[in-house]
Here is the input.
Amino acid sequence: MKKIPIGVDDFKKIITDNYFYIDKTKFIEEIFNDGAEVKLFTRPRRFGKTLNMSMLKNFFDVREAEENKKLFNNLYIKNSPVFAEQGKYPVVFVSMKEIKGTTWEEMQKSSRETLSNLYEKYKYLRENLDERNKRKFDKIWFEEIDGGYNDALNFLSKILEEQYNEKVIVLIDEYDAPLTMAYEYGFYDRAVVFFKSMYGACLKTNSSLKMGVLTGAIRVAQAGIFSDLNNIETHTILDEAYDEYFGLLENEVENALIEYKTEDKLEDVKSWYDGYKFGNIEVYNPWSILKYIKYKKLDAYWINTSGNALIKELLLLSDGTVFEDLDNLVNGQEKTIYINENVALGNDLDPNRLWELMLFSGYLTVKEKINSEAYLVKIPNKEIKSFFKGLFAEIIFKGKSNIASMKAALESKDINTIIRILEKIVLNAISFYDTNKKLENPYQTLLAGFFYALDDYYEMKPNPETGYGRADIILKPRNKKWSGYIFELKRAKTQNLEKEAEKALKQIEEKKYDTILINEGIKDIIKIGLVFDGKKAVAYY
Here is the structure.
């Protein structure tokens, strides 16, 4: 029985080391016959993008052509007319997910290392370079500061064409990974200039280019990252073209289950891991299918880390009603969203893009297209639903330990511990508040997101109409023997936080915010006025 390739995305390794492989080589035929010079494919993480790029590299690369030809025996492409193109072109394959850094200086260093490692694979080219080009090659190879890195891929393409007298295929995997990290850590404006220049030089003004292929999770629009590329064709999860090549189709999953003698579980597997819609077809999450085959257990194996920094900020920018929408989705309802397919980073990140980003990141899927911009979306399957609420605590608060502690403190009415945990939560997100003074009360959305993760124990209601107004947050216990909670949250306006917290408590009393809990039969109701001043919280109850 063949090995299960969990975490293995090297095509040659999968074929030569006897791993289980589902034939996606028709992708090679379609992509070669496609007239677009540069193609971008956006899909959620772990849906087979890197494996497909590795497959393209091993198919087209002129180096080791005869050895690589054997990899495609018994696969679809072997009998295709396009097989005549096998091993014919020089190929540049680089993964941008290796470029990381929490500062622009760190990311620059990481970029130099990544490009130096790429050049290491082509050092044999130096033998035929003139002195000028050899010095240019060595600057990048030896990671010199003035190495001209934004031209590195373009330059490598040109000397490869000269060496082999063939145009070059350039494969850039996870093109958006450094851009989203740069946005998360506050130096996006500097990073985007560099990567725009690199991609533009290589994919637009490169006369040596045969074909360019990029993959990523999102299409970054801000600052015109692709404004220089009028030759690019983008294929998102909404497009019918190439819809079958990322993720697994139902017949492919059936064959995999038969191979590993678990075909009797198809319906269970379908309810847990199916439900994604790419173009016009439904697909399964390949990572979860492989995990299930290995462990024979239905569980939540996939969590997408891509875009979480963006989702975090969009959640914090949203109003409290976003959690009502999330709750409706968890309960099987659909939501209409509007999409432009470009995620705009920078200073004008729009909170209305939350649902779009969740769709492209794999947390939601399309149920129905309404018109050219509007789509009806839903949670795709049981796997996503099983961790959907805790997921946002994980994204925003970087761990679930506070959730368990808060649950215990609420149940035991330990107010001091409740306040201490809330202070800790605010501390984790304090940099957000430091740069978002325009928000009147961002604490409400932050804490609403935290309490939302406690939904198995407390129903969190943000801004509910009750009494003579709207309370900031109400926690209705699932067990009516437990206490209910009402929070009135304020951002400090004076130095006297205790007095402001007392006024917040009086607001709860005077406007009878407890009406909603009384009507639900909750007898023990705890009212808390809470004032935040930066990292500090003062409560009155």
